[in-house]
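Hello again, I could really use a second opinion on something today. I've been puzzling over a protein and I'd love to understand its fold better. I'm sending you its amino acid sequence along with the backbone structure tokens. It would help a lot if you went through both lines with me. I've dropped the whole record in just underneath, so have a look.
***
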Amino acid sequence: MRFKNSVRFIALFAFFIFLMFASGCEYGSKVWHDTQEAVNPNPTIDLSTGGIENADDNKLAILFTPVDEKILSLTSFLSNIDSHPDEDWFRLLFMRFPWISGVFTVDDEASVLVRLPEQGMKPFKPGPLVEYEGDWSEIKMKSFINYSEFGPEMYLCTPFFKDADFKGLVVVHFDPRILLNFCPDPKKLVIMQPDGGGVWTGVENFNKEAFLKIDWDALLDENVSGVTRVGESRFVWLSRYISDTQIVYVTKAVSDDGDDDADFWFF
């Protein structure tokens, strides 16, 4: 009888120890889980954001972003050059950016090394590029828009080297009007170069002269974005640089009410 009581006592004691151990493991597991969540939480994606709240800013963002993305992609591609490109590089350039007009390279004496396509409709003399007064070893890229009787052409120039010595330039060029093709609604977007007088848009009956009469120098000296009025209409605008060439994206405001000095909050 005493033996049976001893066995029963040992069994109950063992069961009690098991319960304590199980309870301790559960508590320890919870503490470890909570610690992991605090130190290394599982990432979550919030898809509830409504985007830009201001209707004017949202409209301009939708119109200009696909255009600007093409320019940024091209300038990024060109910024990786450090030596004269090979055939594969030229092939990749036209594959990724079929909308460009062409590309050419010149040596440090302005002699053309490669030109693709070989004949261009808009003649251009590369001499002034090589004769640039600055130090090309300190300049990653320069840009400008050339206006001719055949229409505007934007040039992006980046230097290449050999043994750390400047040897020439790679020049990619395109018609800035082609950029409107990437806008989801070209009839609502204006692209302009204020200091060059270039205005490109799909807007019908656009009053170009009235827009060029705006004191853009004053506006751009103080802000990179804002709202301005032409006649009875309000326009929201945003200034961007393509290398050292300043361009402005403009679209008509959604409503005629609002602060003409408002800032464009996109970035």
About this structure: The first helix runs from residue 2 to 39. The CA atoms of residues 100 and 246 lie 19 Å apart. Residues 261-267 have pLDDT under 50 and may be disordered.
